[in-house]
Structure of LOXE3 isomerase:
Amino acid sequence: RLFLVDFSLLSGLPTGHILGCPQFVTAPLCLLWLSPQRHLLPIAIQLSQHPGPGSPIFLPGGPGWSLAKLWVRGCHFVLHEMVT
């Protein structure tokens, strides 16, 4: 009932500029839990592929959780567009 979403395909992806501003992408890891009610819920997000002091793990309700979820959503979109 635990699932890991691995965006490692985005690691090292070159990005461009929009109106002179550089764009960024990351390769997060997102841990999901399937609840008894059959809801798929995120329970932890790490925004890089390599653990360590410079790569915190974000938890629901903790500082940065909303921003980490936004990064994962953005990465999901980028991966979808790259692959399909």
About this structure: Residues 43 and 60 are 6 Å apart (CA to CA). The chain has a mean pLDDT of 93. The domain at 2-83 is CATH 3.10.450.60 (Nuclear Transport Factor 2; Chain: A,). The first helix runs from residue 65 to 83.
